[in-house]
């Protein structure tokens, strides 16, 4: 192409040559811009979009935190007020009214409940919300108490989060637990449930398709959708265990790239057209004329001494230091500012080497080398360099060196202009030191000096997934709470510091020990170290931690449980390493503490099954897959149906009907029981209403009720919306709840249910928590004898006497007695003779679906006189 272009240009005059060259340059520039845009625009837009989303997520997380801080302000003031701690430190009956009014001031249109616990977990005061129904039960409101008692949290609030109805994270419920201290000791906790509308904070826009909150449970259980996908950005909300998650609009980047490409090519073409055309039409004016003018200016400059004198005068007046040197860099002239800055006199510097005069031991060799190389190439150069005055004191200078050419283009002088920037450099150094200090504090535990959880997250983020295998040791101290309770928190801090020393001394240089919680530690072993190394390390550390720790003439004794996981066996990757080590640690705790457990394939299968089941339970709650089953109850004498007990079953889409043992334990860990209880309650009432309309006339329906269910103020409201006819509703309270919840608030809620017409029954009486005093105070309508006491009555007289004693207690207090676990006709006959009023068990029927119950009732195949048993 070059040859053909040269041939074409050879046959035309200079003007047309310049015009053709200009046109070729225009087309080449336009093509280059289009190609560069194609190669750079899309990746650049993707990065900008991702950076904008990260900033947006962090901003919204900060907005959520600010919203919570505003909500918490008055509650923090009350929790930290001396009178609150004094109230919880004693009975303080005279201050109850004033304290209650203080709690009521915290209630507003978004408050669901306000509770004040003492350190034993007893609700001293409770104020229900004005307009909002609670979604957190009592067990959830007490979660912060165990952590406070264990010394795992200080005085800062503990905030839990739950999405709104239907998983709506815009209208969300927040449970805020604020420790109350008095005399430096924890006295209890103020717990507030707020329902906040976060639509102004979390509403999406054109850049992000969806914004939501993610709970810490979701982050721990499902890391694949909360921050480890290209189209999702997650930012933690400081001081909480949940995150703001933004879903990226992936189609936006491509559309913007195409639109920008068209606009840039169009406008660039138009912008380049004018100068290229002008250059082609008037090239001789912009090339020849400036060249001639430059030559003329050089001649004029060489002959105009007056102008040179004026320039020298200006240089002398300048506050910047100016030095002129010859071609060999020897100083020939300086201005007064240079002499004032350096402390030299003009006689001392004239003829000296300009490069070596001011440089010293602290001067950066690389900066000096760059200056010399630019001077050798006769090019202008700028640099920031450390220089030294005549008395040896250092100063920083911003230096600019420019060559001066003669008419023949030879360098005859160098002009160096420098500005003192010492103060700026000092300030920048102070800022850098402060930044390093803040970063160190942010990444290290203030008590032990070990890296903290944030540092651990950075460490894992920097590990190459394809690199050498890595192993993790997860440590949790045993009996640490006893140290705090017995010897005080200062002793607990001393123990934690000693454990940190043991970890530092017992690990290899490549290992990283860290403290991630109150008494929780992690050791990330160096690259290549496998789980065998981790097992040996854990065994040594367990023995060392188990030694007595002296403190102020006292002896502190603790132990430690260990969970170990590694990537070498292929079970888990780097992203799941710490979570898997946690699972191994929990297994150690279950084995009786002071144990070392390795994450094995069997444990891995258990963890995966638990995660899968947790996902299915959440889905089941949203889809209301839980169903009521009914077990009938019969009069011991007449055999008439007197009621049905409602029991929960899960209609799994794949595994069919599942019993409670398959899901209730994990559902309780997930705090999902209030939702499941609410579904069973509503559906159970609807099924009983349908049976009554069909003519079966169910006398009574009872539901098992936990503490959260008793405090569910909407129970009467749900029942009022369903026409049950004459059917009575009863709630069955576990005997353990009867013993543990004997408080004024508990009695208030029970009396409130009675006022609405609900019957009160005690379930599993005699199961090991029998409390006659509690029975007298609650005065239930019915007490159900635990089936473990019923089963042996056909075998031993001792069992019959025991049941007779319990029946006598019921008769004495005027309480109806129901016997559970009636398995045979002999059971039914003996229990009727012993005075039981009602019988329930497999002898009559197993728990039945509503349709099966109706069939059995219509056929008369149930009750003491029935001829067949389910």
Automatic annotation (TrEMBL):
CDD domains in the record: EAL, GGDEF, PAS
> Entry's SUPFAM superfamilies?
EAL domain-like, Nucleotide cyclase, PYP-like sensor domain (PAS domain)
Q: Where are the transmembrane segments?
A: 18-40, 264-287
Domain spans labelled GGDEF: 468-601
Which ranges carry the EAL domain?
Answer: 610-861
Positions of the PAC domain: 379-433
**Pfam families named in the record:** EAL, GGDEF, PAS_9
Q: Which residues form the PAS domain?
A: 307-378
Which UniProt key words apply to this protein?
Answer: Membrane, Transmembrane, Transmembrane helix
InterPro entries associated with the record: Biofilm_reg_signaling, EAL_dom, EAL_sf, GGDEF_dom, Nucleotide_cyclase, PAC, PAS, PAS-assoc_C
Q: Which NCBIfam families does the record associate with it?
A: GGDEF, sensory_box
Protein known as: PAS domain S-box-containing protein/diguanylate cyclase (GGDEF)-like protein
| Lineage, top ranks | Bacteria, Pseudomonadati, Pseudomonadota, Alphaproteobacteria, Rhodobacterales
């Amino acid at each position: 192409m070059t040859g053909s272009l040269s041939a074409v240009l050879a046959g035309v005059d200079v003007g047309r040559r310049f015009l053709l060259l200009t046109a070729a340059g225009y087309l080449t520039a336009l093509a280059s811009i289009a190609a560069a845009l194609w190669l750079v625009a899309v990746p650049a837009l993707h990065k900008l979009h991702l950076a904008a989303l990260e900033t947006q997520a962090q901003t919204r997380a900060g907005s959520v935190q600010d919203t919570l801080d505003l909500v918490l302000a008055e509650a923090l003031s009350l929790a930290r007020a001396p009178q609150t701690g004094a109230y919880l430190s004693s009975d303080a009956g005279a201050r109850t009214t004033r304290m209650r009014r203080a709690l009521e001031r915290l209630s507003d249109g978004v408050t669901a409940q306000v509770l004040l616990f003492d350190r034993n977990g007893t609700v001293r005061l409770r104020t229900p919300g004005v307009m909002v129904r609670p979604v957190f039960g009592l067990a959830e409101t007490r979660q912060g108490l165990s952590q406070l008692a264990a010394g795992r949290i200080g005085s800062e609030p503990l905030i839990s989060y739950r999405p709104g109805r239907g998983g709506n994270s815009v209208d969300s419920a927040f449970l805020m637990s604020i420790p109350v201290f008095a005399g430096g000791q924890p006295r209890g906790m103020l717990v507030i449930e707020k329902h906040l509308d976060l639509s102004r904070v979390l509403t999406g826009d054109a850049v992000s398709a969806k914004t939501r909150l993610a709970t810490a449970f979701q982050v721990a259980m499902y890391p694949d959708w909360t921050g480890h996908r290209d189209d999702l950005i997650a930012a933690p909300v400081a001081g909480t265990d949940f995150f703001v998650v933004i879903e990226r609009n992936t189609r936006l980047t491509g559309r913007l790239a195409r639109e920008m490409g068209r606009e840039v090519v169009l406008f660039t073409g138009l912008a380049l057209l004018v100068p290229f055309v002008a250059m082609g039409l008037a090239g001789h004016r912009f090339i020849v004329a400036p060249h001639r003018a430059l030559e003329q200016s050089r001649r004029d400059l060489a002959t105009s001494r007056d102008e040179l004198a004026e320039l020298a005068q200006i240089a002398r007046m300048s506050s910047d230091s100016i030095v002129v040197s010859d071609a060999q860099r020897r100083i020939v002239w300086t201005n007064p500012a240079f002499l004032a800055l350096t402390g030299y006199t003009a006689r001392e510097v004239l003829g000296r080497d300009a490069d070596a005069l001011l440089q010293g031991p602290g001067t950066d060799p690389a900066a000096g080398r760059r200056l010399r190389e630019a001077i050798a190439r006769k090019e202008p150069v700028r640099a920031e360099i450390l220089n030294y005055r005549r008395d040896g004191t250092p100063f920083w200078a911003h230096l600019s060196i420019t060559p001066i050419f003669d008419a023949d283009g030879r360098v005859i002088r160098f002009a160096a202009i420098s500005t003192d920037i010492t103060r700026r450099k000092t300030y920048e150094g102070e800022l850098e030191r402060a930044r390093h200090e803040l970063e160190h504090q942010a990444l290290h535990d203030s008590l032990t000096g070990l890296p903290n959880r944030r540092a651990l997250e950075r460490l894992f983020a920097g590990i190459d997934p394809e690199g050498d295998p890595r192993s993790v040791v997860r440590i949790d101290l045993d009996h640490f709470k006893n140290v705090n309770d017995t010897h005080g928190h200062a002793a607990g801090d001393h123990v934690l510091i000693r454990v940190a020393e043991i970890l530092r001394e017992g690990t290899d240089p490549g290992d990283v020990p860290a403290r991630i919680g109150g008494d929780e530690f992690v050791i990330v072993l160096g690259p290549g170290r496998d789980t065998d190394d981790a097992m040996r390390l854990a065994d040594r550390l367990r023995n060392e931690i188990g030694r007595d720790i002296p403190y102020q003439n006292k002896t502190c004794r603790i132990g430690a449980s260990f969970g170990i996981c590694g990537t070498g066996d292929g079970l888990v990757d780097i992203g799941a390493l710490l979570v898997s080590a946690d699972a191994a640690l929990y297994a150690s705790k279950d084995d009786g503490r002071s144990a070392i457990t390795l994450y094995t394939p069997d444990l891995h299968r258990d963890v995966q099954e638990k995660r899968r089941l947790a996902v299915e339970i959440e889905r089941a709650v949203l889809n209301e897959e839980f169903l009521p089953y009914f077990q009938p109850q019969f009069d011991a004498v007449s055999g008439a149906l007197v009621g049905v007990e409602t029991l929960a079953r899960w209609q799994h889409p794949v595994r069919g009907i599942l019993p409670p043992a398959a899901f209730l334990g994990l559902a309780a860990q997930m705090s999902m029981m209030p939702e499941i209880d609410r579904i069973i309650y509503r559906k159970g009432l609807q099924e009983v209403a349908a049976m009554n309309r069909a003519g079966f006339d169910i006398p009574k329906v009872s539901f098992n009720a936990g503490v959260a269910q008793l405090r569910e103020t909407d129970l009467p409201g749900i029942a009022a919306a369903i026409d049950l006819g004459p059917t009575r509703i009863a709630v069955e309270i576990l005997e353990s709840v009867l013993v543990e919840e004997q408080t004024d608030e508990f009695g208030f809620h029970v009396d409130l249910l009675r006022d609405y017409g609900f019957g009160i029954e005690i379930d599993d009486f005699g199961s090991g928590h029998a409390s006659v005093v509690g029975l007298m105070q609650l005065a239930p309508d019915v007490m159900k004898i635990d089936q473990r006491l019923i089963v042996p009555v056909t075998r031993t007289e001792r069992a019959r006497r025991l049941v007779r004693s319990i029946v006598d207690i019921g008769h004495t207090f005027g309480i109806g007695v129901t016997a559970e676990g009636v398995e045979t006709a002999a059971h039914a006959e003996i229990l009727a003779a012993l005075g039981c009023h009602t019988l329930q068990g497999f002898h009559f029927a197993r728990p039945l679906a509503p349709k099966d119950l109706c069939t059995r009732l219509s056929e008369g195949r149930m009750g003491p006189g029935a001829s067949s048993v389910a």
